[in-house]
Specification:
mainly alpha, 2 strands, two-stranded antiparallel ribbon, 6 helices, 5% strand, 68% helix
Length: 129
Amino acid sequence: MGMFEGWPFVSREERERRQKEYADRVFPFGVDAQRERTAAVLRELFGGEKKYDAQDALFCFISAKAAYAQAGEGGDGYAKAGAQLRKLRFKQPDKIALMLAFIELESNIASLDDYPTADDVRRRAALSS
């Protein structure tokens, strides 16, 4: 990796490898298919509120899920995902609880057939609070 005035440069192959690793970590069942399912649940959970429109919610979900996956599941991953959400636009505890419940449920599925619904997320968030 070279440096030019403080900017790191990586080869195209290295950048593509990192992007693939990230995509595999966040969307292990396929980027397009899993992103569509995720967006549908987020629209149902947050779509009616201007502050949490579907695109913003998807960005927040991806960012928090990456923090969760990188830290490892469990308490540390849960805390890092919550911190990431608070850095972004999620300030309300009920919204954070919904997003964390979704991340936790979605991270524990074995296939897209087991994908959680918005109702599953709401039930899980209610149990957590």
